[in-house]
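queue> pop job 88
queue> type: inverse folding (structure -> sequence)
queue> payload:
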């Protein structure tokens, strides 16, 4: 499979995701944000970090980059796209995903391991997980508080477009297990065609048992399945 990782000034998880993809023998290309052409790719990754220092609003400036025109076109044509953390913010800012990512409840930056519960595995991103499986991943963000209107929330729920929710170690989805105040404990969402995923937790940080854990690896294996 061929993959492309888009790099912005301030990206800091681009190499992590590249290492994970290359370990799984993806033929990966790092694409600078000023490029105007995107290599033919089976998967496009918008990585985590702090593009443009999060000035103006997280992801807002990066969403106007040259390469995003190609990413938007590819997403609308059905290409697989994943935006992680700042990448999720960028996907919302450029209109590929709906909703908003607000300041964390408590107005503090959060960096810690959390748990998510797999809500749906009948898709290309989570098919190597079991439904209702509890997975430990890492988060590191200041604006991860997902919010949307009632109409869009109903659409997300009715069409299984919420693949992961924050939970505790036992899988309980409660206010106490919600690290940032996200609406209904939402940790990630799909677009209506389920080819575009935005998620706040970092699966690439949990893709090597020696370095941390390999609980994020099934996501990448799912994409190869």
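queue> result:
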């Amino acid at each position: 499979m061929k993959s492309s990782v888009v790099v912005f000034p301030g990206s800091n998880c681009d190499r992590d995701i590249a290492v994970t993809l290359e370990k799984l023998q993806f033929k990966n290309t790092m694409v600078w944000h000023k490029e105007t052409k995107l290599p033919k790719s089976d998967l496009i990754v918008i990585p985590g970090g702090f593009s443009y220092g999060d000035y103006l609003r997280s992801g807002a400036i990066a969403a106007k980059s040259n390469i995003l025109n190609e990413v938007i076109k590819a997403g609308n044509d059905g290409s697989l796209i994943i935006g992680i953390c700042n990448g999720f913010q960028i996907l919302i800012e450029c209109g590929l995903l709906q909703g908003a990512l607000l300041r964390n409840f408590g107005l503090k930056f959060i960096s810690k391991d959390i748990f998510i519960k797999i809500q749906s595995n009948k898709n290309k991103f989570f098919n190597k997980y079991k439904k209702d499986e509890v997975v430990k991943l890492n988060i590191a963000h200041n604006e991860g508080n997902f919010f949307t209107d009632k109409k869009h929330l109903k659409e997300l729920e009715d069409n299984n477009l919420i693949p992961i929710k924050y939970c505790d170690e036992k899988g309980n989805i409660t206010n106490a297990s919600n690290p940032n105040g996200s609406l209904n404990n939402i940790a990630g969402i799909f677009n209506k065609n389920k080819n575009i995923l935005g998620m706040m937790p970092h699966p690439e940080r949990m893709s090597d048992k020696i370095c941390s854990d390999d609980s994020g690896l099934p996501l990448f294996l799912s994409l190869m399945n």
